[in-house]
Amino acid sequence: MAKKSKNWLERLMGEFSTTALVLIPICIGINQIGRLISTALQLPIYLDTIGTVFMAMLAGPWVAGVGGFLTNVVTAIAYGRPTSVFFGIVQLAVGLIAGWFVYKGWLKKGINVLWTGALIAVLAALVSSVIVVYVRGGVSASGVDAVVAVFLASGQGFWASIISARILTEMLDKIIAVFIPWISVKRLPEKYARLFKYTTKIR
Amino acid sequence: MDIITYKNFSWRYSGYKGWTLHNINLSIKKGEFIGIIGKIGSGRTTFCSSMLGLIPHFYPGTMQGEIIINGLNVKKSKIADLSKCVGLAFQSPANQLTGAGTTVEEELAFGLQNLGVPYEEMHKRVDDMLNLIGLEKFRKRSPFELSGGQQQKVAIASVLIMNPNILVLDEPTSQLDPLGTEQVFDLIKKLSKTGITIMISTNNVDYLSRFADRIILFDNKIVKIDTPKKILTDINLLKKHSLTHSNITEVSLRLKKMNLSKKELAIDFAELKKEIEEIMK
Amino acid sequence: MASNILLSYVHKDSYFHKIDPSTKLLITVLVILLTFILKNYIHIMILLLFIFPIGIKSKVLRMVFRPVSQLFLIFILLFIIQGLFYPLATDKLMDLPFGFTLWKDGLINAANVGSRLLVMMVFGFWFVLTTHPGDLVSSLRKIGLPNALGYIMITTLQMIPRIQSQMKTIIDAQKSRGLETTGNLIKKFKSYLPLLGPLFMGSVQQAVEKSMALEARAFSSDCPKTNYRKTTIHLKDKIIMICAVALSIIGVILSWTL
User: Fold this and answer.
1) What residues in chain B have their Cβ under 8 A from chain A's Cβ atoms?
2) A194 touches chain B (CB under 8 A)
3) Please, which residues 221-240 of chain C have a Cβ atom closer than 8 Å to chain A?
4) Is B30 exposed, middle or buried (0-12, 13-18, 19+ CB in 10 A)?
5) How far apart are CA C67 and CA A8, in angstroms?
6) Is A131 near chain C, with CB under 8 Å?
7) How far apart are CA A201 and CA A101, in angstroms?
8) Are the Cβ atoms of B98 and C134 closer than 8 angstroms?
9) Which of A95, A171, B97, B200 is the most buried (most CB within 10 A)?
10) How many structural domains does chain C have?
11) Chain C residues closer than 8 Å to A18 by CB
12) Could you state, in order of their start, the residue ranges of all structural domains in chain A?
């Protein structure tokens, strides 16, 4: 059935199987649940990329990137908050990079969960800093602002303060956001795991 | 003519050692009402999925033999084409609502949209289907607000609306309360009169004894295909496969144990009535 | 009808409720683009004036301003951060105690960003107040949104309010069982993170079953799809679209030449 030489577009479209497509709304839901838990419990982490990382582990970088970005498109439409679309770029980046690590087979080893989480945190911090400065003048309206204030008061520069504050707050969040989906994929029943082609890169 | 034919069909999920289904040979005539029974893990769900082509196209695994559904070779056909002649509904009411529509009527119309059915015809078919399942009042409601039984009826109707000539129901009532179960069986009863071929997997033998033309007992292979009378009164066979017999058969069995009746075990109410009348004489 | 499906949509019988969702989306997107293109906050605030006739015509004028209260805290922080720490600052307004400096161009930048946020928020909220998501997706599909994307959007939009109410129930239940929601962080993690495990397992099963359900409804068929909801782009939609684009272009030219 499989053709021998597929061009990049065909290969890309092949990533979006029905199962992968169905996974997207469900994982957007997980991102939402994560965010709700973190606000309800006033946790210092966001948990709003756990679904995106989960997508990356089941369906790879492209599905996770698109699904991550759509998380914010849909919340923008649901709540009428256009700014959230801009932050979709952070989700896109998280999905792509997490998926790339999965694709490379990095996450077969448990210890790499830590490094992957840390690298995703740095990347997410850089991307979100740029967006938060251009769209919201550097104001996040969350706990991060307090950390930024501490850095600024200690004499750090504007960009340095915003980026370091974000790396600091993203670190724990992203490590947890990689660990929980990772342990779930490891424990998935074989019959289901086989339906998602990237699970073989982890299990 | 046979509408469903299985020739030496075997299936193994990739990553598993044994055959989930082994050497299945079967032919079903148009308009038959077939009951599918067997214990958990006996391959009934796999069998039901194979009629729509989910096996071998959706699940990865190894297939042997041949399945012909309504003249289509399942291995060579697309699921989308098979879905025009096979309607499949399964256990979980909420999970098989696609969520592609914000209302019950849109949920019903989803399959028709995918088949490119024109606007007017689509609306007519939706109206007819709402009428059939008795949920006209709920057409503008979100399907997720309905009761389990109502959701299951919507799920069945949303494949039925695509005009299949085979309806496959995989444990449609196993997650429903008694009221929901009754609602769904009432609908199936109504459908059985329309001449559609029905394949239903359920261990609700009370129900099967009343409606099924034939019963297939699965245990990773076909153990027996026969009339409800032959299979559902074979207490030892049922017990061996962790199945129970119907309440009516139980009454009949007790009469026999009390040496009141020498007849073979009753399977439906009419037979039981006759048996009791004879004893009363 | 349908208010249960989405948090924000308000069903009214108004002019703007009836026009095509794509038209409204175009207006909203143009306004958002303009907030980035226009020269300064005064010009951006002029955009806000347009919400009054549009809001009245949509019968939702007062509701449109509801999210503005959320901006209050952001504005205060914005003026502090930008006023004191604007990275490109050159124009000093005054010296403050503790060695801080208040920058004039920082304050102007804060005003630009703030007015942009305000206008985006008001128009964004106007859009969701007047547009049913089902109609939006159906309309977008008609102008070429892929079927798969339409499916993802509509399912997710339906799911969000359901998830919210479910989560509220779960969290309330955990609270009543005496699990921590305030105080010690480690206790919070211990009592809530384990809840996420089953969530992931259940999600995979749900994904598998839902995709089987989609396959059973010919989701992957190749034939051209049709729509159950009727949304048509009328002449008046086209006129509105052309006017909106023309006004935007004129606005940009005026903003940068005057």
Assistant:
1) 13-16, 58-60, 99
2) yes
3) none
4) middle
5) 44
6) no
7) 10
8) no
9) A95
10) 2
11) 211, 214-215, 219-220
12) 15-201
d(C-alpha A193, C-alpha A187), whole Å: 9
Query: How far off is chain A from C149, nearest CA to CA, in Å?
Result: 9
In a 3-state reduction of DSSP, which class is residue A109? coil
Q: What are phi and psi of B28, to 5 degrees?
A: -120, 135
Which residue of chain A has the CA closest to B79? A18
Contacts of residue A194 in chain B, CB cutoff 8 Å? 13-15, 59-60
Half-sphere exposure at residue B252, Cβ-oriented, CA atoms within 13 angstroms: 26
Partners of residue C216 in chain B, C-beta under 8 Å: 52, 79, 83, 87-89, 96, 111, 159
Taking an 8 Å cut-off on Cβ atoms, the answer to whether A194 and B99 are in contact is no
Q: C245 and C117 in one domain?
A: yes
Are the beta carbons of C164 and A32 separated by less than 8 Å?
yes
* pLDDT digits 0-9 by tens, C126-150: 999 999 888 888 889 888 888 889 9
Q: Which chain C residues contact residue A83 at CB under 8 A?
A: 117, 120-121
With a CB-CB cutoff of 8 Å, which residues 64-103 of chain A face chain C? 67, 70, 73-83
In a shared domain, residues C237 and C127 = yes
Distance from CA of A22 to the nearest CA of C (A): 6
Q: Which two structure tokens, joined as six digits, stand for B117?
A: 């059915």
Cα-flanking dihedrals φ and ψ of residue C90, to 5°?
Answer: -135, -20
Residue C40 domain-assigned (yes or no): yes
Of all residues in chain B, what percent carry a pLDDT higher than 90?
75
Interface test with A, best of B59, B92, B114 (most A CBs within 10 A): B59
Token code pair at residue B129: 């289907």
Phi–psi pair at B29, nearest 5 degrees: -90, 155
For chain B, the chains sharing at least 3 beta-carbon pairs closer than 8 angstroms are A, C
CA A122 to chain centre: 12
Residue for token pair 């598993």: B16
Distance CA B223, CA B234 (A): 13
The CATH number of the domain covering residues in A15-201: 1.10.1760.20
Query: With an 8 Å Cβ cutoff, are C215 and B52 in contact?
Result: yes
Helix (H) or strand (E) segment spanning residue B89: strand B86-89
pLDDT, residue C133, reads 84
Do β-strands B166-170 and B197-201 pair in parallel, antiparallel, or remain unpaired?
A: parallel
Please tell me the distance from the alpha carbon of residue B65 to that of residue B190, in angstroms, as a whole number: 35
pLDDT band at B15 (very low <50, low <70, confident <90, very high): confident
Which of A77, A141, A195 is opposite residue C157, by nearest beta carbon? Answer: A77
Cα–Cα distance measured from residue B160 to residue B108, given in angstroms and rounded to the nearest whole number: 9
Contact by Cβ (8 Å): C207, A23: yes
Nearest Cα to Cα of residue B122 among C230, C219, C141, C228: C228
From the list B170, B175, B167, B126, the residue with the least C-alpha distance to B149 is B175
Residue C5's pLDDT band, with cuts at 50, 70 and 90, is very low
Q: What is the pLDDT of residue A203?
A: 85
The domains found in chain B, sorted by start residue, are: 2-245 (3.40.50.300)
Task: Give this complex's ipTM.
Answer: 0.90
